[in-house]
Amino acid sequence: xxxxxxTDVFGIVGETFTFPVEINQKIEEITWKKNKDKVAERDGxxxxxxxxxxxxxxxxxxxxxxxxxxxxxxxxxxxxxxxxDSLEDHYLNFVLTVLDPPSEPKISCSIRADILVLNCxxxxxxxxxxTWKFSNNPHTYQSQEISNPIKNFDDTEKATCFxxxxxxxxxxxxxxxxxxx
Length: 181
Prior knowledge:
Blueprint: E1 3-12, E2 17-18, E3 29-34, E4 37-43, E5 49-50, E6 58-60, E7 66-68, E8 77-84, E9 89-99, E10 106-112, E11 115-121, E12 129-134, E13 137-141, E14 145-149, E15 158-165, E16 168-175
Parallel strand pairs: 1-9
Antiparallel strand pairs: 2-7, 3-4, 3-8, 4-5, 6-7, 8-9, 10-11, 11-14, 12-13, 12-15, 15-16
Protein backbone atom coordinates (compact mmCIF):
# COMPACT_ATOMS: atom_id res chain seq x y z
CA UNK A 1 0.00 0.00 0.00
CA UNK A 2 1.47 3.37 -1.03
CA UNK A 3 0.29 6.68 0.44
CA UNK A 4 0.29 9.53 -2.07
CA UNK A 5 -0.10 13.25 -1.29
CA UNK A 6 0.26 16.31 -3.53
CA THR A 7 0.96 19.87 -2.43
CA ASP A 8 1.40 23.09 -4.40
CA VAL A 9 4.37 25.08 -3.07
CA PHE A 10 5.91 28.41 -4.07
CA GLY A 11 9.36 29.97 -3.93
CA ILE A 12 11.00 33.20 -5.11
CA VAL A 13 13.92 33.44 -7.55
CA GLY A 14 17.19 33.67 -5.57
CA GLU A 15 15.75 32.40 -2.27
CA THR A 16 16.39 29.16 -0.42
CA PHE A 17 13.46 26.73 -0.45
CA THR A 18 12.85 23.59 1.64
CA PHE A 19 10.05 21.19 0.76
CA PRO A 20 7.63 20.87 3.72
CA VAL A 21 8.24 17.22 4.62
CA GLU A 22 7.32 15.74 8.02
CA ILE A 23 8.24 12.10 8.37
CA ASN A 24 8.07 10.58 11.86
CA GLN A 25 9.61 7.17 11.22
CA LYS A 26 13.12 5.96 10.43
CA ILE A 27 13.81 6.17 6.71
CA GLU A 28 15.86 3.46 4.99
CA GLU A 29 15.98 4.90 1.46
CA ILE A 30 15.11 8.31 -0.02
CA THR A 31 14.81 9.34 -3.68
CA TRP A 32 13.75 12.78 -4.90
CA LYS A 33 12.74 13.23 -8.54
CA LYS A 34 11.89 16.32 -10.56
CA ASN A 35 9.65 15.66 -13.57
CA LYS A 36 10.55 11.92 -13.25
CA ASP A 37 14.34 12.55 -13.27
CA LYS A 38 16.38 11.82 -10.11
CA VAL A 39 17.76 14.93 -8.39
CA ALA A 40 18.88 13.43 -5.04
CA GLU A 41 19.01 10.09 -3.28
CA ARG A 42 20.27 8.58 -0.04
CA ASP A 43 20.62 4.92 0.89
CA GLY A 44 20.52 4.39 4.64
CA UNK A 45 23.06 6.57 6.46
CA UNK A 46 25.28 6.96 3.39
CA UNK A 47 26.19 10.37 1.99
CA UNK A 48 23.51 11.65 -0.38
CA UNK A 49 24.08 11.60 -4.13
CA UNK A 50 22.97 14.66 -6.12
CA UNK A 51 22.16 14.86 -9.81
CA UNK A 52 21.95 17.68 -12.36
CA UNK A 53 20.40 20.35 -12.16
CA UNK A 54 20.49 20.47 -8.33
CA UNK A 55 23.95 18.97 -7.93
CA UNK A 56 25.63 22.02 -6.39
CA UNK A 57 22.50 23.79 -5.09
CA UNK A 58 20.75 21.33 -2.83
CA UNK A 59 20.93 19.44 0.47
CA UNK A 60 19.10 16.23 1.37
CA UNK A 61 18.53 15.64 5.09
CA UNK A 62 18.13 12.25 6.81
CA UNK A 63 14.48 13.14 7.54
CA UNK A 64 13.73 13.42 3.80
CA UNK A 65 13.74 17.23 3.55
CA UNK A 66 15.23 18.57 0.32
CA UNK A 67 16.50 22.15 0.33
CA UNK A 68 17.26 24.04 -2.89
CA UNK A 69 19.58 27.05 -2.66
CA UNK A 70 19.42 30.08 -4.98
CA UNK A 71 16.14 29.13 -6.66
CA UNK A 72 15.95 29.54 -10.43
CA UNK A 73 12.88 29.80 -12.66
CA UNK A 74 13.72 26.41 -14.20
CA UNK A 75 13.42 24.75 -10.77
CA UNK A 76 9.66 24.97 -11.37
CA UNK A 77 8.21 21.50 -11.81
CA UNK A 78 6.67 18.38 -10.30
CA UNK A 79 8.76 16.86 -7.51
CA UNK A 80 8.30 13.43 -5.98
CA UNK A 81 9.74 12.15 -2.73
CA UNK A 82 9.82 8.35 -2.60
CA UNK A 83 10.95 6.83 0.67
CA UNK A 84 10.99 3.37 2.18
CA ASP A 85 10.71 2.89 5.95
CA SER A 86 11.56 -0.89 5.93
CA LEU A 87 7.82 -1.72 5.95
CA GLU A 88 6.35 0.08 2.96
CA ASP A 89 6.91 2.60 0.19
CA HIS A 90 5.65 6.17 0.61
CA TYR A 91 5.26 8.92 -1.99
CA LEU A 92 4.91 12.67 -1.45
CA ASN A 93 4.27 14.83 -4.48
CA PHE A 94 4.85 18.57 -4.77
CA VAL A 95 4.36 21.06 -7.57
CA LEU A 96 6.94 23.82 -7.10
CA THR A 97 6.34 27.15 -8.80
CA VAL A 98 9.24 29.60 -8.73
CA LEU A 99 8.04 33.19 -9.00
CA ASP A 100 9.81 36.45 -9.74
CA PRO A 101 10.03 38.65 -6.62
CA PRO A 102 7.13 41.04 -6.03
CA SER A 103 7.47 44.53 -7.50
CA GLU A 104 8.18 47.51 -5.25
CA PRO A 105 4.89 48.48 -3.60
CA LYS A 106 3.02 51.51 -4.92
CA ILE A 107 1.13 53.73 -2.50
CA SER A 108 -1.91 55.70 -3.56
CA CYS A 109 -3.98 58.03 -1.41
CA SER A 110 -7.38 59.63 -1.60
CA ILE A 111 -9.68 61.65 0.63
CA ARG A 112 -13.29 60.58 1.11
CA ALA A 113 -15.46 62.69 3.43
CA ASP A 114 -12.63 63.76 5.79
CA ILE A 115 -11.16 60.25 5.75
CA LEU A 116 -7.65 59.70 4.39
CA VAL A 117 -7.45 56.37 2.55
CA LEU A 118 -4.04 54.84 1.78
CA ASN A 119 -3.76 51.86 -0.52
CA CYS A 120 -0.67 49.72 -1.15
CA UNK A 121 -0.34 47.53 -4.26
CA UNK A 122 2.31 45.31 -5.79
CA UNK A 123 2.40 43.29 -8.97
CA UNK A 124 2.50 39.69 -7.67
CA UNK A 125 0.38 36.61 -8.47
CA UNK A 126 0.06 35.33 -4.86
CA UNK A 127 -1.38 36.93 -1.70
CA UNK A 128 1.13 39.18 0.08
CA UNK A 129 1.43 40.23 3.71
CA UNK A 130 0.95 43.99 4.02
CA THR A 131 2.12 46.10 6.97
CA TRP A 132 1.83 49.86 7.46
CA LYS A 133 4.04 51.94 9.73
CA PHE A 134 3.60 55.63 10.41
CA SER A 135 6.41 57.96 11.48
CA ASN A 136 4.33 59.53 14.31
CA ASN A 137 2.64 56.34 15.53
CA PRO A 138 4.31 53.32 17.19
CA HIS A 139 1.57 50.90 16.03
CA THR A 140 1.73 48.76 12.90
CA TYR A 141 -1.31 47.84 10.83
CA GLN A 142 -1.72 44.56 8.92
CA SER A 143 -3.78 45.57 5.91
CA GLN A 144 -3.49 46.44 2.23
CA GLU A 145 -5.69 49.50 2.66
CA ILE A 146 -5.90 51.75 5.70
CA SER A 147 -8.23 54.64 6.39
CA ASN A 148 -8.35 57.16 9.23
CA PRO A 149 -9.89 60.57 9.84
CA ILE A 150 -7.73 63.35 8.41
CA LYS A 151 -7.52 64.99 11.85
CA ASN A 152 -5.49 61.98 13.09
CA PHE A 153 -2.57 62.91 10.81
CA ASP A 154 -0.25 65.87 10.62
CA ASP A 155 1.44 67.06 7.46
CA THR A 156 4.96 66.06 8.58
CA GLU A 157 3.99 62.41 8.95
CA LYS A 158 5.21 59.68 6.61
CA ALA A 159 3.61 56.31 5.92
CA THR A 160 5.57 53.23 4.89
CA CYS A 161 4.00 50.16 3.33
CA PHE A 162 5.88 46.86 3.66
CA UNK A 163 5.04 43.82 1.55
CA UNK A 164 6.31 40.35 2.32
CA UNK A 165 6.18 36.91 0.72
CA UNK A 166 8.35 34.02 1.85
CA UNK A 167 11.81 35.51 2.67
CA UNK A 168 11.37 38.62 0.49
CA UNK A 169 10.31 42.00 1.89
CA UNK A 170 10.06 45.35 0.09
CA UNK A 171 8.75 48.74 1.12
CA UNK A 172 7.73 52.18 -0.14
CA UNK A 173 7.17 55.45 1.71
CA UNK A 174 4.93 58.46 1.15
CA UNK A 175 4.82 61.86 2.87
CA UNK A 176 1.19 62.38 3.80
CA UNK A 177 1.35 66.02 2.71
CA UNK A 178 1.38 64.63 -0.86
CA UNK A 179 -2.20 63.36 -0.25
CA UNK A 180 -3.68 66.80 0.43
CA UNK A 181 -4.60 69.11 -2.47
